[in-house]
Amino acid sequence: MDNQLLKIHNDTGEDRLHIATKRFECIGASPPHDHPHVYLEMGDANEIVCPYCSTKYIYKK
Q1: Angle CA(49)–CA(37)–CA(34) in degrees, nearest 5?
Q2: What gap in Å lies between CA 9 and CA 54, rounded to an integer?
């Protein structure tokens, strides 16, 4: 994956977020409360869960 992916942070601690992309970087909360940055790709699915913060990302056009 490239370095130009959207970086998504979840400062409000929502358990699920609707997003308009299937490829992105989850950083948890904003620094300094972030977790290791992880690149996520949904592929054919329409949702994915971050393995660090357990946020469920749901693809919405």
Answers
A1: 95
A2: 12
Please count the other Cβ atoms lying within 10 Å of the Cβ belonging to residue 31.
8
**One pLDDT digit (tens) per residue for the chain, 61 residues:** 455 899 999 999 999 999 999 999 999 999 999 999 999 999 999 999 999 999 999 999 8
β-strand partners of 24: 6, 40
Domain ranges of the chain: 6-59
Percent helix, strand, coil in the chain, to 5, is: 0, 50, 50
Query: Which pTM was predicted?
Result: 0.89
Asked if 35 and 11 touch (Cβ cutoff 8 Å), the reply is: no
Instruction: For domain 6-59, say whether CATH 2.60.260.40 is its number.
Output: yes
